[in-house]
Amino acid sequence: MPRCFVHGAGLRMGWADMQFSLPELIYQAVSAALEDSRRHIGEIDSVVLSAHDLVDGRSLSSMVTAPAAGAYLKEEIRLAEDGLAAVSLGSAQIEAGEAELSIVAAWGRASEGDHEHTSRAMLDPFMLQPFALDELSISSLRLSEWIARHGECRESRQRAVAARAGRAGRNSRSVQANVRPRVEFPLHASEAPRFADVAAAVILGRQESPVCITGVGHSAESGELGSRKLGAMRALREAVSRGLAASRTTIEQMHLLQLPGPTVPDEALALEVLDLAAPGEAFEMYASLAHINPSGGGESGWCFPTVGLLNFIECYLQLTGQAGDVQLADRQRAMALGVSPAGAQIAHAVVLEAA
Known about the structure:
Radius of gyration: 19 Å
Number of strands: 9
Structural class: alpha/beta
Number of helices: 11
CATH superfamily of the domain at 4-113 and 197-204: Thiolase/Chalcone synthase
CATH architecture of the domain at 4-113 and 197-204: 3-Layer(aba) Sandwich
Helix content: 25-40%
CATH topology of the domain at 4-113 and 197-204: Peroxisomal Thiolase, Chain A, domain 1
Distance between the termini: 16 Å
Largest sheet: 9 strands, mixed
Shape: globular
């Protein structure tokens, strides 16, 4: 079976920079990815985009933004889903022989929108929206469920916050602005993600390169919050299990794991879900494991639907030795994770290996 390789990546991250329009930022990220891959736009067969009309504030956003991503007169597919889903679709096209080279791009400009309002729109309009829930409210409910079982663990949570901040501080790609969403009890303000304006792109292809995609997994659970155990993160667990099965590896063999957040508890509690931490020890393990979110996770910059693709790029940079001050020594195999509203209802996992 043909394999899919990663040939290059480009990233533009900032906050409320009015020097460039959204199409200009997308163009810069895609151009940087092409330059990194040493490819020309004329060699590209297909373009897969991850963008959401509600986030962009544009009806049928890709009509305005797709040309900046290189999609003019090319086969183009746009997903209103996390950027890692676009990576999965792009790699499937490569493996199926439908394309030789593909651009995968995702973007979101948090400074132009209202995340609280946007994430609320993802919930059922009759049964859930009247309760004024949003994405971070669900994170608070998940943490409350965990605290009810294991206690507050305030000092462990503080160590996890400090560890994430330290990693993000060493990451030269982190957003500099400290703009965070409002959070609700029992979440603390320091556990919230930093908002960012993000445009990200990668080049995928059939020709061999230093990094190969070896496994992909997806899962989804009910949109009805009342029928889900938020702390179980079933979709995330299943997506990871399927990605590992496809790559014929185990979670313990991952030298790098990029978790999707958005909050510190969301990232940390995922370790218990994935059996990397014993029940009640999620925050201690998150603080002590250097290979978990070395980029800084949500502290380095967060905006749906770009998070999964950001994690993918961080894995690519680690595997190619380009991660800068957050570079890990042992870096042969990595997993990037991405989730979608509401409350990680849909999850994606991609395993990358140094070829």
